[in-house]
Prior knowledge:
4 strands; 19% helix; 58% strand
Amino acid sequence: MRSTGTRDMWAAALGGSAGRRAVLCGAGVAALSATLAACGAETPAGPDPTSGRRPEATVELEMVQAAYYGSAATGSGEIEYRGRRHRFRVSGAGLGGIGLARVQAYGEVFNLRDLARFPGAYAEARTGFALGALGGGQLWLENESGVIMRLQARREGLMLSLGADALVIELE
Length: 172
């Protein structure tokens, strides 16, 4: 059974009557079922850009992501760099997908010579899915300063996402 918070999140995102929400959710499940084979492995195509490198920092973040052809996300996180924790805000937009999910991610940060290089616009290429508490995947993000985040993500909710997104990180 979903919590009241999750139910409110669904109602706000999908709007309208319970019947309309059921139709939209059913369409999402049908789309998910039809495209799971197309999702393939939940790792980015090509070689690991962080292979053989040591991380300079670790990061944790939490976002809410909503999509209906386009997608939007908002959230916050913390980066631990040189023994100190720094809070940040994250927002984003993208193309492709349907559904609503909470995303929790943790991972490592590479090519971070100075904390001032951490904020900025990150490009994301990902393939993943969420159905209930089963969703997950890897996120590979790189900003204009060459900072790379390798994240393990866990999505909770009903979400099908394919394609590329852009995320903006701002230190608080």
